[in-house]
Amino acid sequence: MDRDLLQEAGRRLSGWERTMILTHVRPDGDGLGAMAALKRVIESAGRQATAYVYAEIPDRYKFLGESGGFIFWQDDDPQKIDAQFDGILIFDTCSWSQLEPVADYLRKSSLPKIVVDHHDTNDDLATMNSNALYIIDSTAASTSEIAYAWLRAMNSPIDSLTAEALFTGIATDTGWFRFSNTNSRTFLWAADLLESGIRPDKLYATIYSSYSLERLRLMGHMLSTLELHADGALAIMSITREMFDKTGAKATDTEELVNEPLDTGPVAVSVLLSEMRDGRIRVNFRSKAPEVAGVDVDVSQVAKQFGGGGHQRASATRVEGKLDEVRKRVTAAILSILNAQPAQ
Fold first, then answer.
1. C-alpha to C-alpha distance for 315 and 326, rounded to whole angstroms
2. Phi, psi (deg, nearest 5) at residue 196
3. Residue ranges of the domains in the chain?
4. Nearest-CA neighbor of 116 among 141, 133, 139?
5. Distance (Å, rounded) from C-alpha 339 to C-alpha 337?
6. Are 37 and 147 in contact (CB under 8 A)?
7. Fewest CB atoms within 10 A around its CB: which of 27, 117, 137, 235?
8. 214-339: same fold as 3-208?
């Protein structure tokens, strides 16, 4: 990573007495972990930081909310909001669509901004204005990995709760170090964070072994919609509003459900469509590495066709339309890629 860029970002951040911290909608462990870590570091230096979320975060990440002190975003006149802060720090996205609740405000805000992200896909947020600094490294396994490098470049102290937040971001965005984005740097920096005394076994249990019964019931309904295409290479599933109502599950309970079919050998791509309360369809995409699956589907490119983005192996979007119609379009898009693959 560019140490000069990280140090310049550190100098800018240290000049802000009041920092706003943001991440994307439906934040995951990476976005929340980076926010919690930087908020703690900023406050330990005697300055103010406010980290916003837009809705309730998943129960399994509540410990990050406790250490990070997240609050709910409240929209207001942009000039009034600007008057409360000196700069804005944005983590884990470089896309307007993923910042929808604050996008209008950000377009009108005159505050300087620092954007930290590791995704391949972005839109004109990456050229938002001349007073924004971008730390974007698509070779990083997670945004929390970039945040760790940034704190090291600034010689900032990393206490145990800050280390826990960063480790959570790194571990969850790499599927607990099993996804193809994991590299030697990931292990080295995760090992360094463990020196603070955090317990990965406890974190794993908190994050992956404490789901609600409502989620389990929702999974049953979801699996009843499972369809396999292309000799089992594509698994596609749906969750309707009726399923949420029947089970009492929340939107946050859908996290990671898209991964379920990937434990089956023939499945190379898994897709989950969920009806949102605003009438749109959220579509989550996952794919296996070609060395494992025998086919190569870059789901970030599929998501991009539908206005979204993300990683090669994990992406998402939100689409206007009826569930069945969107499901047909998504299925056709992926089958066209699978059908174009050379025979193995």
1. 16
2. -75, -10
3. 3-208, 214-339
4. 133
5. 5
6. yes
7. 137
8. no
pLDDT digits (tens, 9 = 90+) for 267-283: 999 999 999 999 999 99
The three state secondary structure string of the chain is CCHHHHHHHHHHHHCCCEEEEECCCCCCHHHHHHHHHHHHHHHHCCCEEEEEECCCCCHHHHHHHHHHCCEECCCCCHHHHHCCCCEEEEECCCCHHHHHHHHHHHHHCCCCEEEEECCCCCCHHHHCCCCEEEEECCCCCCHHHHHHHHHHHCCCCCCHHHHHHHHHHHHHHCCCCCCCCCCHHHHHHHHHHHCCCCCHHHHHHHHHCCCCHHHHHHHHHHHCCCEEECCCCEEEEEECHHHHHHHCCCHHHHCCHHHHHHHCCCCCEEEEEEECCCCCEEEEEEECCHHHHCCCCCHHHHHHHCCCEECCCEEEEEECCCHHHHHHHHHHHHHHHHHCCCCC
Question: Does residue 344 carry a pLDDT above 60?
Answer: no
Nearest to 67 by CA among 38, 91, 110: 38
Q: Would you say 234 and 268 are in contact if contact means Cβ atoms under 8 Å apart?
A: yes
Domain 3-208: which topology? inorganic pyrophosphatase (n-terminal core) (3.90.1640)
Q: pTM, whole model, 2 decimals?
A: 0.85
| Chain position carrying tokens 């005394």 | 197
pLDDT digits (tens, 9 = 90+) for 28-75: 999 999 999 999 999 999 999 999 999 999 889 999 999 889 999 999
Task: List b or e across 209-226, with b for residues whose CB sees 16 or more CB atoms inside 10 angstroms.
Answer: eebbeebebbbebbeebe
CATH for 214-339, among 3.10.310.30, 3.90.700.10, 3.30.70.260, 3.40.710.10?
3.10.310.30
